[in-house]
Design a protein that fits this description.
Rossmann fold, about 45% helix
Length: about 300
């Protein structure tokens, strides 16, 4: 991890679009329709086997989550998770003995997460709420955890300020957001996926793209429909990043640098950053070439997951 002492650079104000209530409503609608992780299980939604399959996939693909979250170190601590999804990480916190509170902007996700922990007989509290306005008193939690969520919130600086407010002195925030200085951002999203979009002009080309990338044919056809509807404008600007992170129709995603997240968390006493997860499984031959020690080394420098661990 890189360590940075407290500093006080100015955080840039979010743009007008990011301030709009309409954008936040769109974010909520998208995640209500696409609960995070649900697509990775083939079992009946809400069944015990469904949740176990989601969990198996999550930690097999991203084993670094357990390392960074430190589930086993939260026993007896009061933990808030912002963006609990299906409750996969919630089960680890609660199972370790944490007093766990899970919140999400998506009511669909909260319903499934609650069901997940009920099936495991694990205690938890749940609420549908907004990261930019946490409904808790100051100095409430020992830990605030958020994995792959805050890059979707319109007013990111406000969400970070809220995390600081609800953490008790000595508490710790562990947050993962997408990493801009990564192979996935520059080579994957901005270059290779745009190049692959040229294949989506025909059904034959879409099938070729599916064989090369391993992506689902349904997902690629969604991209093809958007390309036909919007033309080459679909490949430019913020919309391209949004649609190539968490699915077609995703209204907001960001990718940030280490410097940017350090500025965002400047009010904290100590800020450390770490990079994990090369995310090369979609690159043709990526699983064969970028594995083992090479992939691990590249992931620590150019990975897609940028963690910030900040102490109050």
């Amino acid at each position: 991890m890189n360590s940075n002492p407290r500093s006080s650079p100015q955080v840039e104000a979010p743009d007008t679009q990011a301030r709009s209530a309409g954008l936040k409503s769109a974010v909520q609608s998208f995640w209500n329709a696409h609960p995070c992780g649900a697509k990775f299980a083939g079992k009946p939604v809400g069944s015990r086997d469904f949740f176990l399959e989601v969990e198996k996939h999550r930690y097999a693909l991203e084993p670094h989550i357990k390392e960074m979250a430190g589930f086993d170190r939260t026993g007896g601590k009061r933990v808030l998770e912002i963006g609990c999804g299906l409750g996969t990480d919630a089960a680890q916190f609660a199972g370790a003995g944490a007093a766990y509170v899970g919140m999400d902007l998506s009511s669909a996700s909260i319903g499934l997460a609650s069901r997940n922990l009920q099936l495991r007989n694990l205690p938890a509290q749940w609420l549908v709420s907004d990261a930019e306005s946490l409904p808790f008193p100051d100095d409430t939690f020992d830990c605030v955890y958020s994995n792959g969520v805050l890059h979707h919130t319109p007013d990111l600086p406000l969400a970070v300020a809220e995390i600081y407010r609800v953490l008790r002195p000595g508490g710790r925030a562990t947050v993962m957001m997408y990493h801009k200085s990564s192979i996935n951002y520059y080579f994957g999203i901005l270059f290779l996926r745009r190049l692959g979009a040229l294949l989506l002009a025909s059904d034959f080309g879409t099938r070729v793209a599916q064989r090369l990338s391993g992506d689902s044919i349904e997902h690629l056809r969604e991209h093809a429909r958007s390309l036909r509807s919007l033309g080459w404008a679909y490949l430019r600007g913020q919309a391209w990043l949004n649609n190539n992170t968490d699915g077609v129709g995703n209204p907001l995603s960001r990718a940030l640098t280490r410097r940017e997240v350090t500025r965002l968390f400047a009010k904290f006493s100590v800020v450390r950053t770490a990079v994990r997860f090369l995310h090369a499984e979609w690159i043709p031959l990526g699983n064969r070439i970028l594995t083992g020690k090479l992939g691990q080394a590249l992931g620590l420098r150019f990975g897609w997951h940028l963690y910030v661990v900040a102490d109050k």
